[in-house]
Amino acid sequence: MTHALGFTEKDLHQLAGARSFERGLGYLSAVSRLEIGDEAISATVDGTDAYEVQLTEDEDSGLTGWCDCPYGQDGNFCKHCVAVGLTVLRQAGSVPQLRSAAASRTRLLNAWLESRTREELLALVREQLVGDRDLQRRLELRAATAGEDTGIVRERILSLLDTRAFARYGYVEYADAHAYGQQAAEAVTALRALTVSGRSADAMEVAREALQALGRTYGEIDDSDGLIGEVARGLAEAHLEACRAARPDPVETAEWLVRCLLDEVNDAADIDLFDYREVLGDAGLAQARTLVVAAWRANPKGWAEKHLMERLLKADGESVDALVEVHAADLAANGHTHLVIARELEAAGRTGEALEWAERGLQETVSEWGPDDDLVAFLCERYERADRLADVVAVRRNLLRARPSLAAYRHLRTAARAAGTWEGSERADALQVLRAVAQPENGRGYNASAWVDALMDDNDLQAAWQAATDGYADQRQWLALADRIRDPQPADALSVYLRWIEPLRKQTGATTYERLAELLLSARACHRALGSEAEFATYLAALRTDQKRKRKLIATLDEHGL
Predict the structure, then answer these.
(1) Rounded to 5 degrees, what are φ and ψ at 51?
(2) What is the radius of gyration, based on Cα positions, of the chain?
(3) What three-state secondary structure class fits 40?
(4) Cβ–Cβ contacts within 10 Å for residue 336, how many?
(5) Which of 41-55, 326-340, 409-423 shows the lowest per-residue confidence on average (mean pLDDT)?
(6) What is the pLDDT of residues 149-181, one digit of tens each?
(7) Which of 204, 201, 212 shows the shortest CA–CA distance to 260?
């Protein structure tokens, strides 16, 4: 940590949630072995078991907590983390002393180790190896990297990447991914140690196998925290470092790289061909270009092939026409690829062609969900810049007709107002489109409610109320309308509130009780506006009598002054 205490009790509450925070208060006396270092806070918390907790904080991710209890291993900021955090806050005044004590213990240990003889240190290590299999495995790997037997190193590194010990059901779940990631990270350390020891050629070959091994199993790991992805990128960096030291055959290296980049096993490592520019040289890069072009021509719709070809063309500074050719070979159904091409052309100063491609994208869209929103926005912005406001209106009008929705209606309204045509027939025609969708014979689809929403969005409340009365409003819209007309039409609003209160009387649950209280408060406001508060008091008394067995409901009503 960079300062004494960078978190507050409020931070702990937000991270843990109310339930875990409250439970954490009960574990304050269970915290022991508290250590506050420069980078982390660690402690043991006695619960069902003795759990190890570590809190860390940095500028990017803020306060984070890790605990080896089952709930903590699922990635949650558990009650044990809360207990440690609260303990530290309560001892804030002694944090400098605790931090100084931790540093003193470290110095004391280092001095003691340096004072031991070789024989004493060997005896100490062997003593520790007896009860610590993980330590033994790590030291065995260090010994292998320092030796000459590459076979042993290879076997050890690949075993570190084996997921079987962590995959209880054929899949490494989140709770086990952290432990697997810590083990797998040792493979990166071992590969780098090989290179440093002068065995870069061996490190390069083993790194290739390690990347393939992790790539094959990456899809079967819950890497929500990104730890395994970091290991994969570490393996890739270790491979590149080994290549720079070993100077392998550039053509063969290019062939391996392209195979790797076209394989889905590279999803985690995310290797970039041009990071290897120095290793490949002119001969290797030429071979890579040949292979990438051949792969793309054989499969122009393949994502990896297309991405590699685009990367190659941009790195070589090829003309925009070559990039257009790559993208045009696989046009998305919603026009998104047309947009990519339009942006490339616009960046090259070819604005006329860019606009043509954007227009083509709109015309050639065949997706049932309509054109890409960004494509539409791009085209409309260019029309606006050219003062082609009528064309913007035409685009928005066609989209409303193709996919009627409140959002499409709003876009058309904005465009037509800018063009000065909204208050004429444009608005009436747009509302008619939404009304037609709302008709029962048209199936009353997912956007059938857009007509009433549009009327309310226009603040045309009388028309919206009439549409609702005619049967075109759902519960959400009825209540939204009631809230909007409550002051000018309290009697109408009251009828809505009372209608939606009745079914809630038969339901239970905290959410239901809160909603019922909200509706009752709204009904009371209507009665006050009508001067009939006595009538509401009679209604509320009868409701409380009828619902008296629901103690939580009565308590909720009391809290709201009902």
Answers:
(1) -105, 140
(2) 34
(3) strand
(4) 18
(5) 41-55
(6) 678 888 888 988 999 888 888 899 888 888 898
(7) 212
Could you tell me whether strands 40-46 and 31-36 are parallel, antiparallel, or unpaired per DSSP bridges?
antiparallel
What's the rounded Cα separation, in Å, for the pair 174 and 361? 42
What are the distances in angstroms from CA 83 to CA 8, 65, 225?
Answer: 13, 11, 24
DSSP string, 174-214: HHHHHHHHHHHHHHHHHHHHHHHTT-HHHHHHHHHHHHHHH
Q: Which residue matches tokens 């709109």? A: 362
d(CA 72, CA 65): 8
Distance of CA 475 to the CA centre of its chain: 33
CB contact at 8 A, 160 and 187: yes
Residues in the chain, total: 562
pLDDT, average across residues 41-67: 84
- 141 versus 30: the higher-pLDDT residue is 30
Query: CB-based contacts of 482: which residues, under 8 Å, 6+ apart?
Result: 492, 493, 496, 497, 522
Tell me the CB-side half-sphere exposure of residue 541, using CA atoms within 13 A.
6
Q: Tell me the pLDDT band of 542, cut-offs 50, 70 and 90.
A: very high
Please enumerate in sequence order all residues whose Cβ is within 8 A of that of 90, keeping only pairs 6 or more positions apart, or say none: 28
The pTM (predicted TM-score) of the whole model is 0.60
Q: Is 110 helix (H, G, I), strand (E, B) or coil?
A: helix
Between the CA of residue 48 and those of 35, 53, 69, 156, 178, what are the distances in Å? 22, 14, 9, 36, 22
| 523, burial (CB in 10 Å: exposed 0-12, middle 13-18, buried 19+) | buried
Give the bridge partners for 35, in sequence order. 42
- Please tell me the distance from the alpha carbon of residue 141 to that of residue 147, in angstroms, as a whole number: 10
Contact indicator for 195, 238 with CB cutoff of 8 Å: yes
pLDDT, one tens digit per residue, over 220-239 is 999 887 889 889 999 999 99
Quote the DSSP letter at residue 375: H
Q: Which of 155, 163, 156, 162 is nearest to 137 (CA)?
A: 156
pLDDT at position 256: 95
pLDDT at 69 over 80: yes
